[in-house]
Amino acid sequence: MAKRKLVSTSTLKRGMKIEQAIVDAHGHEMIARGMVLDDFQIEYLRDHGVAVYINDGESDDVDISELERNLPVETKKMIEEVREEDPAKVELNEEVCKRVGEGIQYLFNNTDSDNFMETTTNISNELINAITSSNAVAIDINMIKVSDEYTFKHSVDVATMAMVIGQGCGLTQDQLRELGISGLLHDLGKSQIPLEVLNKPGRLDDKEFELMKQHSLFGFKILKEKNQLPNPIMMGVLQHHEKISGKGYPLGTAGDSIHKYAKIIAVADVYDALVTERPYKKAFPKREAVEMILAMTQDLDMEAMQSFFNCVILFPVDSIVTLSSGEPAKVVKNNRNNCLRPTVVGLKTGRLYDLYNDFSCASLVIV
Predict the structure, then answer these.
(1) For the whole prediction, is pTM greater than 0.85?
(2) Hey, which bits of the chain come out as E strands?
(3) Which among 57, 88, 106, 186 counts the fewest CB atoms within 10 Å?
(4) Taking residues 288-295, what's their average pLDDT?
(5) Residue 115: DSSP 8-state
C-alpha cells in the first residue's frame, strides 16, 4: 500500500508521483492520481495550490487486529474516556430504498403519467419519514446507496443529503418536505436527453454538453406544465447547476438570485457526482471529494457548505484510519466543525491526536 505524504508545492521535483487527482473548478481532471510529475505539471500545481500528496514509498503491512488486541491498558483506557458516539445518522432500510428507487425510475420513464404527482408524493413521504422518524442529524457518507443505476441512485442520494443539510440551515418541516421533492426530481429533465448522450462512455463533445446543460430547464418545464408544485420546488430543479459566481447553467443566475433549495441541492449534487464512478470517469475517494468541495467557495453557497461539513460523517467513530505519518489510528470522536479532522488514538504510539484543535497535529492528515 502506497504511503502518502503531504508536501508543499514549492518542494516538488521531477519524477515524484502524485497521490491525488487534481481537477479544475469545472470538475475536469487536469492531473491523474499516480502520475509521475514533469516540469509543466509542477508549474501548474504551484500556480494553483500550496500542498499536494505524493507517494513516499511503500508502507509496511500492519496487522490492525493484532495491534488492537495488544493495546496497552493505558491506551484502552484513553479510548474509553475520550470516545464519543456519533450523532444519529440517516438509515434507510432496504425496503424503503427499493420503493423509493422504483418510484424515481417510474417518474423518469413516465413523465406524462396521470399518476405522476401521486407517485411523487408517495416516494417523497417514504424518504422524509425515514429521515425524520429517526431524528437523524448526520449522514455517514460511506453508507449511502440505493440502486446500482446511476440516475435513480443519484436522485435519492442527493435528496437524502439535501434534507439533512437543510435541517442544518434551519429549514422548517414543510420546507424540508419541499426540498426533498425538489432533490428527488432535480434531474428529471435527463429523461428528455437521448440515451446515446446520457450514457456516452466518454467525454461529451461541445454540442452534446450544451444539450446536457439544458436538462435542468427541461425538468423545470415538465413540472411547470403540471401546475401542481410550489414554485420553490421547481426553482430547486431549475437552478441546481447555477453557481454563486454566475458561471453556472442554464441561465447564469448568480448569488442571492439562486433559490435556497437550489443552493443546498447543488452541494449534495456535486459531492455525489464526485464519488460516483461513471463510464467516462473514476470515482474520487470520499475524503478527496470533501476536500474538493471545501475549495469551491466561489461557486457553492457558504451556509449550505458549512451545514454539509457539519452533518457529514466521513470517518465513523471506531473506524480505523491511517495517518500521513503512516501510523494506523482509531477514530474516537468526530469534530462537528470539520469532518476531515476527527480525534484519533494512534495504535502504535498510544498518542491522542486531536487533528482539529491541537496545533501540534497541523501537519497530520488522514490518508
Answers:
(1) no
(2) 2-8, 22-23, 29-31, 51-58, 139-140, 312-313, 320-322, 328-333, 343-346, 352-354
(3) 57
(4) 89
(5) T
